[in-house]
Fold this sequence. Notes:
The structure is a homodimer of 337-residue chains.
Chain A: H1 2-10, H2 42-55, E1 69-72, H3 86-98, H4 111-115, H5 119-123, H6 126-138, H7 143-156, H8 172-183, E2 187-195, H9 196-207, E3 214-226, E4 229-240, H10 246-254, E5 261-264, H11 270-277, E6 284-291, E7 298-299, H12 310-318, E8 321-324, H13 325-328
Parallel strand pairs in A: 1-2, 1-5, 2-3, 5-6, 6-8
Antiparallel strand pairs in A: 3-4, 6-7
Amino acid sequence: MQAALLACTLGLALPCGCRNTPADRPAQGEPAAALPSWNEGPAKQAIFAFVARTTEPGSPDFVAPAERIAVFDNDGTLWAEQPMYFQLCFALDRVKQLAPAHPDWKDSEPFASLLRGEVQAALAGGEAAIAQILMATHADTTTAEFESIVKDWIASARHPTTKRRYTEMVYQPMLELLDYLRENDFKTYIVSGGGIEFMRPWTEQVYGIPPEQVVGSSIKTKFELRDGKPVLVRLPELDFVDDKQGKPVGIQARIGRRPVAAFGNSDGDLQMLQWTAAGEGARFCAYLHHTDAQREWAYDRESHIGRLDKGLDEAKARGWTIVDMQRDWAAIFPPQP
Amino acid sequence: MQAALLACTLGLALPCGCRNTPADRPAQGEPAAALPSWNEGPAKQAIFAFVARTTEPGSPDFVAPAERIAVFDNDGTLWAEQPMYFQLCFALDRVKQLAPAHPDWKDSEPFASLLRGEVQAALAGGEAAIAQILMATHADTTTAEFESIVKDWIASARHPTTKRRYTEMVYQPMLELLDYLRENDFKTYIVSGGGIEFMRPWTEQVYGIPPEQVVGSSIKTKFELRDGKPVLVRLPELDFVDDKQGKPVGIQARIGRRPVAAFGNSDGDLQMLQWTAAGEGARFCAYLHHTDAQREWAYDRESHIGRLDKGLDEAKARGWTIVDMQRDWAAIFPPQP
């Protein structure tokens, strides 16, 4: 449907007037009606053109529905990531929650600084400090307990500056894009450096992405029978880092098909985009460029969080789509309830 | 559909005559017509009853379609596993294929014995020998190369005694069961101790199970750019063993939902069945019992391959379904082409 109309609009040599929507499916929105929070421009046009040429039967770039895998980074691509990754906010809140059971934290870094409210001092220890915080706050529960902890936090915690709930800081244009792709039989996956079990409790409700379509970083778990009842215990031991070179590894391990479309916003997504681009046939690679200091944040080459430097150069050199958030998005976040 | 009819047949207090098949879906087969290779008896009846009570709207045991996860062991559950795991046959064939490039194998075990055709002697080294054979035959290729190697082998290799192709040694009743569950909106997954990349190249064609629904054991892979082209290289290093306690771990890591139905045939599947059974609401756990020495193989408590000992006791104690292959299956393998 979109395909036929769009082909007409763009003057492509596809038979116009034919309507290929099967009778047993509801007619899908016209491209003109899809992606309402995207401004007219090259990014929106590129998305429509890609979906048209991969879904229109008879198109030389047609992709079978089973192969329509679209992967999305999460932090900075589906929801915001400033002034720090939201999962780190969760970890800091949890340090305070757990502190009474850990009296030694008062005298040992990075916990001592955190408990005094000095986040920057705590994080001065770099990756080692962050790993320590993550293990102390993400392990030593069962998977069921951790799910419940995440659900409680995500339902109540508020972003330090916007005071919105974190799930209200998802990008409205990306929600529309996820829907639009799914309407066209793409299967949408998250492929994030974030913790898989930190995302799964809420991705279905917020993004329409079910637990089995979430790929992320993980710690090890162990099966145990406790009083005859089986549980999975989360161990303070890293299992897999789903970032940079890890993203294609995670995609192969968990999905087993190469994506045809990939969306990211930082150098941590570059290998995922390279892996996607290297497949045969039509591919779509896009970078979100955070350019809107008024409505969101503006950052790229110099940012400690979500640095986009090499990726920006490669996107320009290879003609990947660059979504300029200030230019291309009519809205950033969903309307407040 | 099946549900309403079956409820009537069994005299259950469900409203009969109501037809709940949505108008946009084809009517599904009646239970009487489903599972034609299953003999009438308690196993077939238990399957029908479970599907009825979990899919009939209004049933107290109704399971939402998104939660209808059914997991299947592969070796000995979906295809045969005697006289040795078929993946080991693949490995042995590949040792011969690779031997010219490894002149040292002539003098080092387990390869020397294998190359002399003395399989039992080679395997006398136990798990260490098997690990050596697996690493030598499954690593040091790209993922794309390995996929192609597996596809070539599975299309041509023949079972040592039946002379059938290995994919013709899948169980016809289980193919029907997979179809029947999918017709009732169950999502079918393989959860196997076998190698994930050894299964994925053919599971979609043979079982209708796509790559993203295969969970298995794995070796590590590494992302590399070779002449600017991204590849994933298979490393001779174990990543994950999807067997015994590993099966619930693999299910949580890869699927992220607890299954409502699980099918296995050995003690290696016990933890998967325990994990499935421990969920809230209706659950179905079944063991295949290899009892047919004429048409297949008969083995259980004493077998080195597919030992079923503790699992058999627990299945009996907990009232899980035990499929007696001799009694319950009218056919074992699909008809020969």
